[in-house]
Design brief:
This protein is of the alpha/beta class and about 575 residues long. It is about 35% helix and about 15% strand. It has three domains: about 300 residues, Rossmann fold, CATH 3.40.50.300; about 110 residues, Domain 2, N(10)-formyltetrahydrofolate synthetase, CATH 3.30.1510.10; about 80 residues, Formyltetrahydrofolate synthetase, domain 3 (Roll), CATH 3.10.410.10.
């Protein structure tokens, strides 16, 4: 008996395709050559003038957000499904584009690996996508840390603004997972080295500057949002902004080019817009408004992606991103895997970097149905915004017909328009044609009754409670004293109208990652609340959430290298 040929790695598949010249992809979208800023032959930035011109010429395409059930540490293939769905839509004759998030180097060198999709549903060039791309994340880090340097410099030179050093809200950032600098003391070594104080480092993609870039509508809006960032308060409680510190202009100069969306392509040559932010557990976890606007102005349908489950990135897509942009979604795709539903049903354990539990590979319809409670809740979360939902069953070879039927039954009972098996990982766009037809049909009427979860004028605590009770399924919210003080302060400073960007674990509907399925009877503890006045939201920190990840015992970066021919190896 001959051995089965192993399935090629993502990097091998990506390198098996010769990318089209990016100018050719842009021209098919109606983008002029003088609106394209090339970064080599396969990637480019598109000018903001192109967005304005194309929006004035073309009708807006359909707007679809791809979300998921509560994921396992391995992920459920949401990025892969987003790319595969767009490829499938192009195969059935619709002009479709991907609008996807740019990865952080933290997970690339940590535990997750690349974020360009997988198998035969990827964005290419895969190495460039995952490593630096056009330098946007570095520009964000530089702009953020420039504000931090200006802040400490002001303290050193006599503190003319009267900043209370104990009130400083602004951390420093680096786009590498580095737990050792989560908390640190700076300014040591004598007077010439600054004012000693405790501070923290966050991962760059959790920076408010990333959120500002993602939500800005144009260069003037970027400049205004950066100016509104609150870095600290004075000794008498007044906010100190980046404008007060006279650093907002320089930050804008660093971000001027980063504001322009990036154009790449899928393995099948379709357009892929890559711009801004992952990490929906500690940030808003969505790509940029500008990238979506450009995609919508050049395509019949756009597949964008929101991080983690529908309780995380999708809620923020609706309540933060759509609130800021004014764009209305036409539909949502909820990605589910049978192995994850079994885990939510109490069978097996999934640990990243370790072999899959054999119990997850054996047929177990009862476990799928039990875990289906999580899928039901995530469908309900989408429907809470009156957006039609389609379930994509991301197929694995061990999935059985009976298990698939159980997922479809659960999905339809929860109100999904359809639940479709998708083989995009192994078959590319051809494997997603059925899903593409279901999504096109579900979005034919759009979401005319789309509504946000809460109004702008609701109190901050009422907004937090709306998310915790209606989206997570909690029985209540416990606000710790420091968080209650911050909420009161932010409302007194005039920020009560802002939406909420919850920071909580992605591995449970609750605050506790150990609570799988659809937990009930839990209360959500709010230990801290942070202000992002420039981005335009308030961030409550739930439970033990951290804004700087750490590396695992065997980081993925151990496998990454450059061969004798200069090719990057070891990316997954």
């Amino acid at each position: 008996m001959s051995a089965t040929k192993p399935f090629p790695s993502d990097l091998e598949i990506a390198r098996s395709v010769t990318p089209r010249p990016i100018l050719e992809v842009a021209r098919e979208l109606g983008i002029r050559d003088d609106e394209v800023e090339q970064y080599g032959p396969t990637k480019a930035k598109i000018s903001l003038a192109a967005i304005r011109r194309l929006e004035a010429l073309n009708p807006r395409g359909r707007y679809v957000v791809v979300t998921a059930i509560t994921p396992t540490p391995l992920g459920e293939g949401k990025s892969t499904t987003t790319v595969g769905l767009a490829q499938g839509l192009n195969r059935i004759g619709k002009r479709a584009a991907v609008a996807i998030r740019q990865p952080s180097l933290g997970p690339v060198f940590g535990i997750k690996g690349g974020a360009a999709g997988g198998g035969y549903s990827q964005v290419i060039p895969m190495e460039d996508f995952n490593l630096h791309l056009t330098g946007d994340v570095h520009a964000i880090g530089a702009a953020h840390n420039l504000a931090a340097a200006f802040l400490d410099n002001s303290l050193h030179h006599g503190n003319p603004l009267g900043i209370d050093p104990q009130s400083i809200l602004w951390p420093r950032v680096v786009d590498i997972s580095d737990r050792a600098i989560r908390r640190a003391v700076i300014g040591l070594g004598g007077r010439e080295n600054g004012v000693p104080r405790e501070t923290e480092w966050q991962i760059t993609v959790a920076s408010e500057v990333m959120a500002v870039l993602a939500l800005a509508s144009d260069l003037a809006d970027l400049r205004a949002r950066l100016g509104r960032i609150v870095l600290a308060t004075t000794t008498d409680g007044r906010p100190v902004t980046a404008e007060d510190l006279k650093v907002a202009g320089a930050m804008t100069a660093l971000l001027k080019d980063a504001l322009k969306p990036n154009l790449l392509q899928t393995l099948e040559g379709g357009p892929a817009f890559v711009h801004c932010g992952p990490f929906a557990n500690i940030a808003h976890g969505n790509n940029s408004v500008l990238a979506d606007r450009l995609a919508l102005a050049t395509n019949e349908i756009v597949c964008t992606e929101a991080g983690f489950g529908a309780d995380m990135g999708a809620e923020k897509f609706f309540d933060i991103k759509c609130r800021a942009s004014g764009l209305r979604p036409d539909g949502a795709v909820v990605v589910a895997t049978i192995r994850a539903l079994k885990m939510h049903g109490g069978v097996g354990k999934i640990v990243a970097g370790k072999p899959l539990d054999p119990a997850l590979l054996a047929e177990n319809v009862d476990a799928v149905r039990a875990g289906g409670a999580n899928l039901t809740k995530q469908i309900e979360n989408v429907l809470a915004f009156h957006v039609p939902a389609v379930v994509a069953i991301n197929l694995y070879p061990t999935d059985t017909p009976a298990e698939i039927a159980a997922v479809q039954e659960v999905s339809l009972a929860a109100g999904a328009r359809a639940a479709v098996v998708s083989r995009h990982f192994t078959d590319g766009g051809a494997g997603a044609e059925d899903l593409a037809r279901a999504v096109w049909d579900a979005t034919s009427e759009g979401a005319p009754d789309f509504e946000l979860l809460y109004p702008d004028d609701a109190p901050l605590l009422a907004k937090i409670e709306a998310i915790a009770l209606r989206i997570y399924g909690a029985s209540g919210v416990d606000v710790l004293p420091a968080a209650a003080k911050a909420l009161k302060q932010y409302e007194a400073l005039g920020f009560g109208h802002l939406p909420i960007c919850m920071a909580k674990t992605q591995y449970s509907l609750s605050h506790d990652p150990a609570l799988k399925g659809r937990p009930t009877g839990f209360r959500v503890p709010i230990r801290e609340v942070r202000l992002s006045a420039g981005a335009g939201f308030i961030t409550p920190l739930v439970g033990e959430m951290r804004t700087m990840p750490g590396l695992p015992s065997k980081p993925g970066g151990e496998n990454i290298d450059v061969d004798a021919d200069g090719n990057i190896v070891g990316l997954f």
